[in-house]
Design a protein that fits this description.
alpha+beta; eight-stranded mixed sheet; 19 helices
Length: about 575
């Protein structure tokens, strides 16, 4: 199938002065922003110690927690007599005890409730168990213990660079307004299964004497509750029941002040709009992008008043929007190439070719971490939301955790399936910085951080598909670019231009035949920086070919930077 957009040729015409970049209004990180925090001490410099901080979640098995579990599971789920009896056996044998999560599961194993039993629990039963047993940790003064963050002691400085790029952009927006107040940054934690727990981390990341950081308590449950209230029902008064629909239980016990704030925002929409109007930056966390989309749209799929107002502020360059992982993926949307830009939600490169790309809800996050899986798709097929996400990035699909998880084929297949011209994949600990538009649909971008941004261009691409029974085989051809940190680019009238930064002392890394955390595609592409005209390899049952053309450009970098290199991916 010939894709509808066609360009006669590629261009590589550079005058350095045309790349005069303004303060970005999008800071889109690819995830894995490893940060020194009390719950992630491995990311800290070795000599740093947190004082009076939460260092791990704890779960208790005692008379009180057993009573909570019975009450919550009866009210919000289905009471599991067998699981309850195993917990009661632990209590009768050991008395009241507290565990970290893995130790709790070990105790259940010893009581006869094995790992297979735990994995077979539904999401509702699994999270009812954990939420009901979680300990409310307090310090010597009776105040809630918080996760603490220290950017100053973070080992991975590229993570700090990404955070600082967002903060600097927020300061720039604030400076333009000439208002006499602190710089204000909001954080939305809706991508997390537990948005309450994630608040301490993100407010800790951005807290400093110059920044007023605020939690924005939007969640899918709040949108559903507000919708019912607007229809005349008792939605906001029954928020815990709506939270239960999203496998979130008993949070008012652990975070009473946050539960109260969420209820207040549900009852009075002006609180959300007034807060948003006075923000200079808004950051979205990682997790599940479908949850964030549901937090900013109504149950009928319409943009919420908050989202409509956010789009207007962002378009006026009055606010910078940042995100990491899911917080990046959710920004894709709008229309390009005459079609809606979808939002990628799950799946991998192997499943993209062998099973396909489907417009269905994503699988449970427990499928990816191996804890259990209620709605596993055949062979990890790729899923997407065909109508897209929040629509602030309107130039193509967005993908994250990119080179490290070999998601090139996943992005290529999803871009081809949705008949879009461009797809962008952002590496971990890396960010794509997007400038405000000076003309409609004209993109200017740069890359910072540890890795780079992969761009698939299917303007002259082709996709062919054959099917045999349930299996499908696909052949996809197009043009690939890898824009490393420090490089810049534009898209003007559908033409991609990339300015690769030259590093004379850069030594391209050597490919690892067994693959590595760097990703096989990125490792194999480094051969182009060793003067290879073509490189090909087999991975996960798929053949990949990169072959230079007369328009291709390659630049030595810690990771091999390249532009306009024709590719071919297919199942042999």
């Amino acid at each position: 199938m010939k894709l509808p957009v066609k360009l006669s040729c590629f261009f590589y015409l550079y005058v350095f002065s045309c790349y005069s970049f303004a303060s970005p209004n999008l800071v889109l990180a690819g995830g894995a922003l490893k940060t020194c925090a009390s719950l992630s001490a491995k990311n800290c410099e070795s000599d740093h110690v947190f004082v009076n901080a939460k260092t791990h979640a704890l779960y208790e098995v005692n008379a009180e927690s057993l009573s909570r579990y019975r009450k919550n599971s009866t009210e919000f789920g289905k009471f599991d007599e067998i699981l309850y009896s195993k917990l009661a056996n632990i209590y009768s044998s050991l008395g009241g005890v507290q565990y970290k999560k893995n130790a709790l599961f070990d105790a259940l194993n010893d009581a006869g409730f094995h790992n297979d039993d735990i994995r077979s629990l539904s999401d509702v039963s699994y999270f009812l168990l954990l939420d009901s047993l979680e300990v409310s940790q307090v310090d010597s003064k009776g105040e809630r213990l918080k996760e603490r963050v220290s950017l100053a002691h973070t080992k991975e400085k590229a993570s700090v660079d990404v955070y600082n790029a967002f903060l600097q952009a927020a300061k720039d927006k604030h400076r333009k307004k000439r208002v006499e107040r602190q710089v204000r940054v909001g954080v939305i934690t809706a991508s997390s299964r537990d948005p309450f727990e994630a608040v301490d981390f993100y407010t800790g990341v951005f807290s400093n004497p110059d920044i007023d950081v605020q939690w924005i308590p939007l969640t899918p449950a709040l949108q559903h509750a507000k919708f019912v209230s607007d229809m005349g029902g008792k939605g906001c008064e029954n928020l815990p029941h709506f939270m239960a629909q999203f496998t979130l239980f008993d949070k008012a016990r652990l975070y009473p002040e946050r539960a109260e704030k969420q209820t207040a925002w549900c009852l009075d929409e002006t609180l959300a709009l007034d807060t948003l109007s006075n923000l200079d930056g808004l950051f979205f966390n990682g997790g599940d992008q479908s949850k964030t989309l549901a937090a900013l749209t109504t149950p009928t799929g319409e943009p919420s008043t908050f989202l409509t107002h956010l789009r207007a502020l962002w378009k006026a360059d009055a606010i910078v929007v940042g995100g990491t992982s899911a917080g990046t993926a959710v920004q894709a949307g709008g229309f390009a190439n005459g079609r809606p830009i979808p939002m990628l939600t799950s799946g991998d490169s192997e499943g993209a070719l062998s099973s396909g790309v489907f417009a269905v809800p994503p699988v449970s996050q427990r499928c990816e971490d191996g804890s259990g899986c209620e709605n596993h798709l055949l062979d990890n097929a790729v899923t997407l939301n065909p109508v897209g996400g929040l629509g602030l990035f309107r130039y193509g699909l967005l993908d994250t955790h990119f080179s490290e998880r070999d998601r090139e084929v996943r992005l290529i297949a999803a871009t081809a399936q949705s008949q879009q011209q461009f797809g962008f994949g952002v590496d971990e600990t890396t960010a794509l910085l997007v400038e405000p538009e000076t003309q409609a649909n004209q993109l200017s971008f740069s890359v910072i951080g540890k890795g780079g941004v992969f761009i698939v261009d299917l303007s002259e691409g082709r996709i062919e598909e054959t099917r045999y029974k349930e299996k499908a085989k696909r052949i996809i051809a197009g043009s690939a670019s890898f824009v490393p940190s420090g490089s810049k680019g534009t898209i003007r009238e559908g033409v991609l231009n990339i300015d690769l930064v030259k590093q004379d002392n850069a030594i391209p890394r050597h490919a690892n035949k067994k693959g590595s955390a760097d990703g096989v595609w990125r490792e194999q592409a480094m051969r182009l920086c060793r003067n290879a005209e073509e490189t090909s390899w087999e991975h996960l049952g798929t053949t990949h070919v990169l072959k230079r053309s007369a328009q291709s450009v390659v630049q030595r970098h810690n990771y091999c930077g390249y532009a306009y290199v024709p590719f071919l991916v297919f199942e042999p």
